């Protein structure tokens, strides 16, 4: 009984029942050593504003909404830095070129992919792109990573966070979101919510079986019940992405 009261008090102090650990949303800190291909995009002040994935020695896959519109201009891609405040960790690599999918209009309409070419090799191991539809089957264990908000109202995370989220079926995701397009997107999350990517995680990786299956794109709020995270479906854009990886620069 007394323990129950203590737990209740701690929960109230901790910000209520929904507040799990202050982490992505519902995830935990992870080591960049285990995920060397996770990078972030920094503006001219060095502030992180989106995520990305190193997919070739000088190429980073991110979201088109991170490279266009109201998004800050990319100044550097930061590689190997788990703690955003530790400038001694990893390297901030200058950008040579940005390609944004030509069909991109807004995240909820699809084509939310962009390829950033670095001025020099980042020196980290790239991640392979999705190569199989099987990776998109309902229930596939996927892992999302980023430095974004740890809840809808929270600040972005100082540290790299990761969260495991199962792939949601196209039918179920279409029920959650009328604008869902199975040929352009994939959803991941729990029906009850609690685990998700959030603002600032955009552009970052959704990984399954060691392959990049999604690019963090959009969703209604973060970690809400029946509102899974929506990711750009990497396999659907393989041809245009591969063409960019082959491009010199
Ligand atoms: C965003 O605004 C954002 N819950 C990223 C991911 C999700 C929602 C919004 C998914 O960058």
From the spread of the alpha carbons, the general shape counts as: globular
Q: Largest sheet at a glance?
A: 6 strands, antiparallel, barrel
The level of helicity is: 10-25%
Strands, total number: 14
CATH class of the largest domain: Mainly Beta
Which structural category fits the helices and strands?
mainly beta
Q: Helical stretch count?
A: 3
Hey, roughly how much beta strand do the residues contain? Answer: 25-35%
Task: Name the poorly predicted regions.
Answer: 1-22
CATH topology of the largest domain: Thrombin, subunit H
CATH architecture of the largest domain: Beta Barrel
- Taking all Cα atoms into account, the compactness measure Rg is 18 Å
Q: Which helices and strands appear, and what pairs or packs with what?
A:
Layout: H1 2-13, E1 28-29, E2 38-42, E3 48-56, E4 59-62, E5 76-79, E6 91-100, E7 114-118, E8 128-129, E9 141-146, E10 161-168, H2 170-176, E11 185-188, E12 205-208, E13 211-218, E14 229-233, H3 238-246
Parallel strand pairs: 8-13
Antiparallel strand pairs: 1-10, 2-3, 2-5, 3-4, 4-7, 5-6, 6-7, 9-10, 9-12, 10-11, 11-14, 12-13, 13-14
This protein binds 4-(aminomethyl)benzoic acid (4AZ).
Outline the structure in words:
With 249 residues, the protein is mainly beta. The chain folds into two domains: 36-126 and 238-246, Beta Barrel (Thrombin, subunit H), CATH 2.40.10.10; 133-236, Trypsin-like serine proteases (Thrombin, subunit H, Beta Barrel), CATH 2.40.10.10. It is built from three helices and 14 strands. It has helices spanning 2-13, 170-176, 238-246; strands at residues 28-29, 38-42, 48-56, 59-62, 76-79, 91-100, 114-118, 128-129, 141-146, 161-168, 185-188, 205-208, 211-218, 229-233. It has a six-stranded antiparallel barrel. A six-stranded antiparallel barrel has the order 2-3-4-7-6-5. A hairpin with a 2-residue loop joins strand 12 and strand 13 (211-218). The protein is globular and about 45 Å long. 45% of the residues are buried. Residues 1-22 have low confidence and may be disordered. It binds 4-(aminomethyl)benzoic acid.
